[in-house]
Amino acid sequence: MLSFTKKISAFLFGSVLLFTVACQKPLAPEYKGFDNLQIGKLSMQESHFSTSLKFYNPNSFGIQLKKAEMDIFVNDKLADHYLLDSTIYISKLDTFYIPVSIKINLNNVFSNALQALISKEVKIRLAGYAKLKKGAVGFRVPLLYEETEKLDDLLNQ
User: Fold this and answer.
1) 3-class secondary-structure state, position 145
2) What's the whole-number mean pLDDT along residues 33-45?
3) Which of 23, 31, 76, 150 is deepest in the core (most CB within 10 A)?
4) What mean pLDDT comes out for the span 26-30?
5) Average pLDDT of the residues in 85-97
């Protein structure tokens, strides 16, 4: 028969272990690219684009995305600022999409149009944060993603 102190010790150890696992800070969603790029208005002064940013939840538990705020850079130049201020429920170990509509001044982004045409690539970077919630506990995680896309691939989506 276990002594009272051993029972208490086992209970405390189990409680601490359960609390540690249950309150594990969520990992940041993994950026997986974007789907369904649509071009609305196209001009050098102001162009309208919409797409769905594709992310993967690497956590073994569901989370809520309460808010996301990010700067969108194209070729290392600020193209737009994006704010999502609504709740999205995200299943565990699952892919999810965030709809995005942005306005870009192409004159600023492609200050050297000849260079953009010659390279045939565009560098896209997202920098910001997301507020995630698991149960009653909220977390703020950084969003930092960067990739280079071929212009042909972007225009043929």
Assistant:
1) strand
2) 81
3) 31
4) 82
5) 91
